[in-house]
Amino acid sequence: MFKKVLWQLSKNFSTKIGIVGVPFEEGQGKIGVANGPEAIRKANLIENIKSIHQEIDIHDYGDVSYTSLENVEVPNMKKYSDVAACNFQVSRSVEKILNDGRICLTLGGDHSIGIGTVDGHIKAKNEKVCILWVDAHADLNTNKTSVSGNIHGMPLAILVKELADYWPYLPGMDWQKPILPIRNVAYIGLRSVDSYERLIIEQFGITAYGMEDVENYGIHNIVNMALDRIDPHRMLSIHLSFDIDSLDSLEAPSTGTSVRGGLTLREGIHLVEQIYKTSRLGAMDLVEVNPSIGSPKDVQKTVEAAVHLLMAACGYTRRGLIPRGPDGSPIRTIPSPV
């Protein structure tokens, strides 16, 4: 049994990883979240991922850039021209990374970039995608229900096909089709849901686990319950969209819309580890790290949490890693004492 566990922990170490940064903050109103990708990279993200095992193949595709659309506006969608233009480039980048045979790790940036990351994933996998949206918030408002008009609270409502009729025509977004079935979406970590969002969740029967569910069932069971609902046949590519504010604000204080009572870092890491072990993780977003919020210690704590989560998506295990010889083969016996 012990040998079987060791083999299972080591078999995925041919993992190919692609990283793309999206230094974007126009989907919300607080300055600084565009610096999230740079802060995460500077915390030795790539070096830490490479340390997991020498067989990991990792490539940094750099940062997405875009040119804002001209004379394009939609009522109650702030900075729409920027969001639409940026997400087009994000979608193309994610699609390329996935077509290169890599797990795509997207470093945000605010959560409006989820429009592009999910769209790119859907295109690369011929629509065979399910989503785990790990967030304190539902991000399910339309431009008619949003109080703020900030688009980082709208990405899922734009993506799912059941809400397509609730939107006006979105100019400059013809590249994105709302074809994702709402049954393929599950939330984990909700604890700040607007009233209209709750109505949508209940009306359409969206799989949604709030923090009270995590407390009742435990994070391990919640992840399995979510996958049973959105991918019962275990055949879909998993898109894990992880907002750092899903963690409790004591764990990740440097984020724009923090809410107390969230996941512990341990629960967050365990969640990502479970998804990696399915061997179906296609893409992960890590968004809403804002280095301009809080003290230097707060920023360090938040960025370190982000790195731990991203490493878990690349196969790092807290059990410890199996030693390998110079040829990369696993060492199965303890060296003789000198």
In short:
With 338 residues, the chain is α/β, with parallel strands linked by helices.
Instruction: Quote the distance from N terminus to C terminus.
Output: 30 Å
Strand order of the largest sheet: 2-1-3-8-7-4-5-6
Indicate the proportion of strand residues: 5-15%
Radius of gyration: 20 Å
Calculate the mean pLDDT score and round it. 93
The assigned structural class equals alpha/beta
Proportion in helices = 25-40%
Largest sheet: 8 strands, parallel
* String of helices and strands: HEHHEHEHEHEHEHHEHEH
- Shape field: globular
Number of strands: 8
Describe the structure.
By secondary structure, the chain is an alpha/beta fold. It is built from 11 helices and 8 strands. The chain has helices at 2-10, 36-42, 45-52, 80-99, 114-124, 155-159, 195-204, 211-217, 219-230, 265-277, 296-312, and strands at 16-22, 57-63, 103-108, 129-134, 185-190, 207-210, 237-243, 281-287. The chain has an 8-stranded parallel beta sheet, sandwiched between helices. Helix 10 links the parallel strand 7 and strand 8. Helix 8 packs across helix 9 (219-230). The longest helix is centred in the N-terminal third of the chain and has 20 residues, at 80-99. The radius of gyration is 20 Å and the shape is globular. Mean pLDDT is 93; it is low at 1-13.
